[in-house]
Amino acid sequence: PGDAAATRPLAFPKGFLWGSATASYQVEGAAKEDGRGHSIWDTFSHTQGKTHNGDTGDVADDYYHRYRDDIRLMKDLGLTVCRFSVSWSRIFPNGTGSINQQGVDFYKKMVDAMLEAGIQPYCTLYHWDLPQALQDKGGWENRDTAQAFADYAGYVASKLSDRVKHFMTTNEIRSFVELGYREGIHAPGLRLDRAKVAQIAHHAVLGHGLAVQAIRAKAASGTRVGLAENPTVTNPAIETPEHIAAAHKAFREENAMYLSVIMEGRYTDLYLKQLGADAPKFTPEELRTIASPLDFVGINVYAPTYVRADAGERGYVMITPPTSFPKMASPWLTVGPESLYWAPKLIHDLWKVKEMYITENGASSDDVVAADGHVYDTDRVMYLRNYLTHLQRAISQGVPVKGYFLWSLLDNFEWADGYSKRFGIVYVDFATQKRIPKLSSQFYADVIRRNGLG
Ligand code: PNW
Asked: Which positions bind substrate (predicted)?
């Protein structure tokens, strides 16, 4: 493979990192084993009516026991990186205080298995499974949770940074704040007003910033720190200068409570004006903490939004797509492959970020096992090929994306959708735990082998 796109069409740069992503509660199972404490997702999934079919993560992919086999699957596909998350309540069963050594040992062993397979681990510290003991004290409504998170993050980094070089503080602050505390469709299942939600979002970005500082204080030198956020991706309706300018404005404003304040250390004027008396309470020092410098920015990219230029104060308006807009199996997952061009491109243009990763991208499909025992997920292959084509376009224009983590290797516990929505490139028969690589596994292995699409 050549150095960039120059030699072959649709080639990725030499050394580009190809991986997959998972999260503790979605794959591990072993919910009651080895001293793990309760998390808000245990509570939520065991509350009647909260998840599809009453599904829970009690067993999930049983990754806790099967990780060696699953890491072998990754190796066979040619993955060189893997993103996983640590379950906070395996380490601190009560959120703070006493440590559960068995939890620490599990992640050490699991990471060592990755390293032995030639796979570099990327560790997320918070992928939504808050210890229930902290929710009992208000969860992210309570500012103390931000400090508790930093203490936990620093502790994990001190224990794993001899073998893990990359840490992400949080996964998708936007999702856990809005789905968990505003819409009530994820744990802890609350429906709070916008003033409370704004304050919760502030505590969460503050937790991120405090965790960045704690990791830097406690981890081995050379440790790299970032996050995995899912910004609203504001694609220009058409790629003309006026709509592209609108897309830049929209990206900052639509992400004002999350990525923008993290990158800029200030809430945008329009955001504060729009919230008025409902704006979060904050100090200048908190804003500096929130904007602690990062070594990399990870973004999870799925559904698009579209914007057009407008003469009003904001300079843009969001477009509601027609009902005929193409979707994957999850109703929210509209297909907009150019999102994988515009998301990193807009971030690079706005904030001059030097290192980025696509920390998630993938699709749900109504997978079926065919009579011959295979799974032919041609829609997922189409989705991935098109999104990756746009990622290649961004990289070939100098946007510094260093790696791509496909969500996900295995079908897993898809939160409120339980096991009804499959995102894996490997099919899981949940009754037997049998793994069947889908057509998309062959596609991905081929992309990795050729380091490109052409
Ligand atoms: C991400 N939405 O979640 C999460 O990081 C994963 O844990 C999850 O399994 C994956 O994407 C697939 O859903 C999202 O409603 C959940 O827009 C919901 C939305 C976006 C991302």
From this structure: 26, 127, 171, 302, 407, 414-415
Is residue 189 helix, strand or coil? coil
Binding site membership of 423 for ligand 1 (Cβ less than 6 Å)? yes
The alpha carbon torsion through 134, 139, 144, 147 (nearest 10 deg) reads 80
Q: Which two tokens stand for residue 405?
A: 């983590």
Distance, C-alpha 303 to centroid of its chain: 13
Alpha-carbon span 140 to 135, nearest angstrom? 8
Confidence of residue 9 (pLDDT cuts 50, 70, 90): confident
- Cβ(414) – ligand 1 distance below 6 Å: yes
Against a cut of 0.80, is the pTM above it? yes
Token look-up 């990192």 returns 17
pLDDT in tens, 414-439: 999 999 999 999 999 999 999 999 99
- Check whether 4 has a pLDDT greater than 70: no
4 CA distance to ligand 1 centroid (A)? 31
44 to 39, 62, 197, 247: CA distances (angstroms): 9, 20, 19, 37
User: What is the predicted pLDDT for the residue at 155?
Assistant: 99
User: What 3-state class would DSSP assign to 199?
Assistant: helix
The one-letter amino acid at 267: Y
* 360 noted as active-site residue: yes
Residue-level pLDDT at 8: 83
Q: Are 134 and 145 in contact (CB under 8 A)?
A: yes
Q: Residues 33, 116, 172, 285: which is the catalytic one?
A: 172
CA–CA gap between residue 419 and residue 410 (Å, rounded): 11
Q: Which residue of 84, 85, 302 sits with most ligand 1 atoms within 8 Å of its CB, as the best mutation to test the pocket?
A: 302
ipTM for this model: 0.94
Q: Whose CA is nearest to atom 9 of ligand 1?
A: 414
- How confident is the model at residue 7, as a pLDDT? 67
Q: Is 239 assigned a catalytic role? A: no
